[in-house]
Write a structure and sequence with these properties.
Blueprint: E1 2-5, H1 20-47, H2 51-76, H3 92-120, H4 127-149, H5 156-185, H6 190-217, H7 227-235, E2 240-250, E3 256-264, H8 270-285, E4 291-298, H9 300-305
Parallel strand pairs: 3-4
Antiparallel strand pairs: 1-4, 2-3
Helix pairs in contact: 1-2, 1-4, 2-3, 2-5, 2-6, 3-6, 4-5, 5-6
Length: 308
């Protein structure tokens, strides 16, 4: 077997569709708005003994941490590679998503415990204050979510930021409804119940983020990529008889890599082999494989029979 190693293709001619400046600004604005809102919710929640406001504040605080981590990872991912970090810091985007998920799970555990305690021992709360503060939260969360709407399909951290903000808006709407209900009924137990509902909403959303980020952190095949489809794509190329030792993993939340060995049944010239590999890499780019390394294995017996 003759082994020819193709060069890495690190071409960035294919745009990942994300405007770094706009995305960075969206994170900064989102962080600023939510920090201010968390402060308002915490102060109001403590003064009015509202578990729903404090739980929502905890939810929003975890989202602030999420946005901060995502922003740091987003900027680190843009840094150039070094001799020690040959892929740069792209993987930090995956780690940020994983830390965000773990952080959220810890937060809901603490807030859930307190909500159950308040449900057993309800305390009087001002429904109208709860409703007004949560109403402001709806506006802030929707505005923040819309800033991430355009790029939500291009990056796992941007997607998580968008989903967090939209879920926050829905949660705030629930808090508003709960506040209005308390005003007209004096059912103070509604407040901790809303806190538990918020906890459930966070848990459902976080589980998906945890699963996706964990898979990427252990170099599993990224979501949206079908291994069998990629194998078929390579196998169907002219002059390729077999593909094996194929690995696909995430370099970041936006870029994926592949390594594979291909076997050829024809005796091709060096230029023909290189053309075949470059054409294959180009096709892989359209299947979310941004960096690929292809090793060619040529059967010498075939070449000798053809008098090459």
């Amino acid at each position: 077997m003759a082994h020819n190693h193709s060069h890495h293709n690190h071409s960035h001619s294919h745009d990942h569709g994300i405007n770094a400046a706009d995305t960075g600004m969206a994170f900064i604005i989102g962080i600023s708005l939510n920090v201010l809102f968390v402060i308002v919710e915490v102060i109001t929640g403590i003064i009015n003994n509202s578990m729903s406001l404090l739980t929502d504040a905890g939810h929003n605080l975890s989202d602030v941490a999420s946005l901060v981590l995502s922003l740091i990872a987003f900027r680190l991912a843009k840094k150039k590679s070094t001799e020690k970090f040959t892929y740069g810091y792209k993987k930090t985007t995956v780690l940020a998503a994983l830390f965000n998920a773990v952080f959220l799970l810890i937060a809901i555990g603490i807030l859930g415990f307190e909500s159950v305690h308040r449900l057993i021992n309800p305390e009087a709360v001002k429904g109208d204050v709860i409703a007004w503060v949560a109403g402001v939260g709806i506006i802030i969360n929707v505005v923040t979510a819309l800033m991430f709407f355009k790029n939500r399909h291009g990056d796992l951290n941007i997607k998580s930021a968008y989903l967090h903000m939209m879920s926050d808006a829905l949660v705030s709407a629930g808090v508003v409804a709960g506040g209005i209900l308390i005003v007209y009924t004096d059912w103070y137990w509604v407040d901790p119940v809303i806190g538990l509902v918020i906890m459930l909403v966070i848990l459902i959303g976080t589980w998906s983020l945890l699963a996706d980020s964990f898979r990427l952190s252990v170099d599993a095949v990224p979501p949206g990529i079908d291994m069998n489809e990629i194998k078929e794509l390579i196998s169907n190329q002219k002059n390729i008889t077999d593909v094996h030792h194929i690995h696909i993993w995430a370099l970041s939340t936006t870029e994926n890599a592949l390594t594979a060995h291909i076997s050829l049944n024809d005796c091709l010239s060096f230029n023909e082999k290189m053309d075949l590999v470059q054409n294959l890499k180009h096709k892989l780019m359209h299947h979310k494989i941004h960096h690929s390394t292809i090793e060619i294995e040529t059967e010498l017996s075939n070449c000798e029979e053809k008098d090459c």
